[in-house]
Amino acid sequence: MTGDVTARTYMIIGPEPEWWYRDLISCLQATFGTLVARAGADPLAVLGAGWRFLHLPGDVRSEEFYYPCPPDASGTGDLGAALAPHHELRARWWQPADEDDVWREMREALADDRPVIAAVDNFHLPFRPAYGDVHAAHLVVVYGLDEVRGLVHVSDAMPPAFRGAVPIEAFLRSWGSANPTDVQDAFFSDSRIGRRCLDVRLDTVPPPLTPELLGGFLRTDVEGFTTAGPDRTGLAGFDAFAGELLDRCRAGDAGALRELYPFGWGMQAQASLHGELLRRCGHEWGDPQLAGAGRAVEAVAHAWTGLRITGAHGLDDASAVAADIAHHTTVLRGTYARAVDAVGAAAARL
């Protein structure tokens, strides 16, 4: 790392981060995976250990990186704990406190060798395919700030993947964008970026995963699916979510389908990572039942595709796709039930 944070201008450039990506994840899991790997942990073991269903009515936002995060004692919720409930992963949103020096917190984090996850608008980033064309909320990892040359160093594992410098002016436009409503992207526009950033910390690098440790995680996850709670959680929560979604579609409420796409991506990504982890562990440990449970959870991830894509194509007439939505929610509910049973049976043997 180079630079002197006490100088008048700053050049703080850390090592290039490792890309971490899977086909069914969004920029949320990709950026968190990058920082978890940088902390010395296995991203799949951390981000794939937990699995749940949680829907918070009225909470869904039009951002690629939306993820349901129930409020904690602070009243805001911890996104890291929501993504990795079995590990000491912590993440908090923050915004620059000083309008006259918007880089202050960023400098401090980078000088402390802590890359920052920044919310951005793809419309203003030269390396994104949507540059100059489509407004959409996205996340990138900032690992360097060069105020001498007027550059911000960012890493983005989402295809087409980019790692390098962009002009400060372009980054500032993207980081501070109003992200206005864009008819070309009904799901990730109309959500102000507001120079938001995430401070992500892994308090303790976890020990290697063992059958006993994973078994405890799985039993907790299964309990969450089969025990009714105050929120829309587990299988009962899915039933409430699906019932409301269908009712709103029948009433012609396109807003239900706009929410479905970003909400469903979080649930799909989590199921994909959890299934991959179980399948990998089953192979490494010679446990076919565990690997089979992983494939059952991956089936949940793939079943989300039909529901999300049907919703996306039904925006112009929600009532016309109500029957198809009903079909896909029924299919998805069945895959959830089978996967919960398979995970429970595998957990009982670990």
Structural class: alpha+beta
Average pLDDT level: 95
Main sheet?
Answer: 7 strands, antiparallel
DSSP strand (E) fraction? 5-15%
Q: State the distance separating the first and last CA atoms.
A: 44 Å
Can you write the helix and strand succession as a string? EHHEHEHEEEEHEHEHHHH
**Helical segment count:** 10
Uncertain regions spanning at least 5 consecutive residues: 1-7
Radius of gyration: 21 Å
Assembly state (oligomeric)? single chain
The outline comes out as: globular
Q: Determine the fraction of residues in helical runs and give it as a percent range.
A: 40-55%
Total beta-strand segments: 9
Q: Mind explaining what this structure looks like?
A:
With 350 residues, the protein is α+β, with helices and mostly antiparallel strands. The protein contains ten helices and nine strands. The strands form two sheets. Strands 1, 3, 4, 5, 6, 7 and 8 form a seven-stranded antiparallel β-sheet that branches. The protein has a two-stranded antiparallel ribbon with strand order 2-9. A hairpin with a 5-residue loop joins β6 (151-156) and β7. The longest helix has 31 residues, at 254-284. It is globular. It starts with 10 loop residues before the first strand and ends with a helix.
Note the topology.
Layout: E1 11-13, H1 27-38, H2 43-47, E2 54-55, H3 79-83, E3 89-94, H4 104-111, E4 116-121, E5 137-146, E6 151-156, E7 162-167, H5 168-175, E8 197-202, H6 211-226, E9 232-233, H7 234-250, H8 254-284, H9 288-313, H10 322-349
Antiparallel strand pairs: 1-5, 2-9, 3-8, 4-5, 4-8, 5-6, 6-7
